[in-house]
Design goal:
The protein is of the alpha+beta class and 424 residues long. It has helices spanning 6-13, 35-41, 45-48, 60-73, 116-134, 153-159, 163-166, 181-194, 238-252, 262-279, 293-300, 302-319, 344-359, 387-403, and strands at residues 2-4, 19-24, 30-33, 75-84, 90-102, 105-114, 138-142, 148-151, 196-204, 210-221, 227-236, 283-291, 325-330, 333-338, 362-364, 367-369, 372-380, 408-411. It folds into 3 domains: 2-116, 2-Layer Sandwich (Beta-Lactamase), CATH 3.30.450.20; 135-241, PAS domain (Beta-Lactamase); 253-417, Reverse transcriptase/Diguanylate cyclase domain (Alpha-Beta Plaits, 2-Layer Sandwich). The strands form 4 sheets. Strands 1, 2, 3, 4, 5 and 6 form a 6-stranded mixed sheet that branches. The chain has a 5-stranded antiparallel sheet with strand order 8-7-11-10-9. Helix 11 (293-300) runs antiparallel to helix 12 and helix 12 (302-319) packs antiparallel against helix 13. The longest helix is centred in the N-terminal third of the chain and has 19 residues, at 116-134. Residues 124-169 form the PAS domain. It comes from Paramagnetospirillum magneticum (strain ATCC 700264 / AMB-1) (Magnetospirillum magneticum). Residues 77-127, 197-249 form the PAC domain.
């Protein structure tokens, strides 16, 4: 046990940056406190002297633990204890106590170091860690070289990669191959220039399944302004995108044939007009009506009629290029947009193919059925320079074909040349 010299004590401890107090062991009364201790407590020295150490503890359980440890070991080393300031505000301290003698009086010598800022930082870090770990979004932290240093539980759940499988690897373990190199080049250019990026990314799970995520990337810089980490936060939006795709398809495609419906047809026709004006090209619009379809419906029923419409749609698709548009407007009316055509001979060949294929017998659920096609054609910009007029002219040409005997095609032009002789 060390004996303290009361005379030299004040000079040694008074200017210490650590709070120091000396209290009698028999009753806990404080007989010395340096200015740092008084500043921590927030009361003048005259008030501290004569008070008891127990008056400054926030938690009675912590105080009891300190007393128990002192009785058992005669000292306390670096205990984290909360004290109370004069205004009632608690603060964290690192407390060390040693038994000693103050003259002939047994005392406890206490060193009190304010660690409130450190504890606050620790609590914030713990809270942040809890938020990260319980977040629904996948979180990935990499070093400046891109090596994965940390991931959360949601990352594992979404990607299928365990903590051990991800740590130390590069984020390209998730690469799906769906994006061109330009995509990643633009992404990293934005990150380097602005410190952040966000967007949709196709990635691959551990199982090989491709999924869509909404990814946000941000750089973390140290005190010197250097990039210390990269933070990636992502959500699996596959289900949402599939729902959006389904809603879009329901709004834009015919449920029976799978062809674009009237709404999507009009949109594509508008796009075709803009593209043709921009590129100074031509395209043709074909209006197609199935003659005899009502008889098939009345004879065999609507189920067989639906099968015929589906087969007719398939034959139309076989008659044109993949870049062209085949749509079902309603009932037994179809349209075709032939993009970037040279002249009427090319258009006529396609129209003849359409008429010929639709004239072939249909075998439908044990029934043989026959229909014929009347096809009206209008050309942009030869016949009209806007979509609405082009539709009217193609529709008019189709009805002219019907009036001339059906099972044929015809262009919008002077009456004497309206209908092409298909079987001349």
């Amino acid at each position: 046990m060390t004996e303290l010299d009361p005379i030299g004590l004040a000079g040694v401890l008074e200017d210490s940056p650590i709070g120091v107090s000396i209290s009698r062991r028999r009753d806990g009364v404080i007989v010395f406190a340096n200015h740092t201790f008084c500043d921590l407590i927030g009361v003048p020295r005259v008030t501290v002297l004569g008070s008891k150490a127990r008056d400054y503890y926030v938690d009675d359980h912590q105080r009891a633990t300190v007393i128990k440890h002192m009785k058992r070991h005669g000292s306390v080393d670096h205990a984290e204890v909360q004290f109370r300031r004069s205004d009632g505000a608690p603060f964290w301290t690192l407390l060390t106590i040693r038994e000693s003698l103050f003259g002939t009086e047994p005392v406890n010598l206490a060193w009190v170091y304010d660690i409130t800022e450190r504890k606050t930082s620790e609590e914030r870090l713990q809270l942040a860690a809890k938020v990260v770990e319980t977040a629904n979004e996948g979180i990935m932290i990499t070093g400046p070289d891109g090596t994965i240093e940390a991931v959360n539980t949601a990352f594992t759940r979404i990607t299928g990669f365990s903590l051990d499988e991800a740590i130390g690897k590069k984020p390209n373990i998730l690469k799906s191959g769906r994006h061109e190199n330009d995509f990643y080049r633009d992404m990293w250019r934005a990150i380097l220039e602005t410190g952040q990026w966000q967007g949709e990314v196709w990635n691959r799970r551990r199982t090989g399944e491709v999924f869509i995520e909404w990814l946000s990337i941000a750089t973390v810089r140290d005190a010197f302004g250097e990039v210390s980490h990269m933070l990636g936060i992502f959500s699996d939006i596959t289900a949402r995108k599939e729902d959006e795709e389904q809603v879009w398809r329901q709004a834009n495609f015919d449920a029976l044939t799978g062809l674009p419906n009237r709404s999507l047809f009009l949109d594509r026709l508008g796009q075709a007009v803009k593209a043709a004006k921009r590129d100074k090209t031509r395209f043709a619009l074909l209006f197609i009506d199935l003659d005899g379809f009502k008889k098939v419906n009345d004879t065999f029923g609507h189920a067989v009629g639906d099968l015929l419409l589906q087969e007719a749609a398939a034959r139309l698709l076989l008659s044109v290029r993949s870049s062209d548009t085949v749509a079902r407007l309603s009932g037994d009316e179809f349209t075709v947009i032939l993009h970037d055509v040279e002249g009427k001979d090319e258009i006529g060949n396609v129209a003849a193919k359409v008429v010929s294929r639709l004239a072939e017998p249909f075998e439908l659920d044990g029934h043989d059925a026959n229909v014929q096609a009347s096809v009206g054609i209008a050309i942009f910009p030869d016949d009209a320079d806007d979509a609405a007029m082009l539709i009217r002219l193609a529709d008019r040409a189709m009805y002219t074909v019907k009036g001339a005997g059906k099972n044929n095609f015809g262009f919008h032009e002077m009456p004497e040349r309206l209908v092409y002789p298909l079987y001349a």
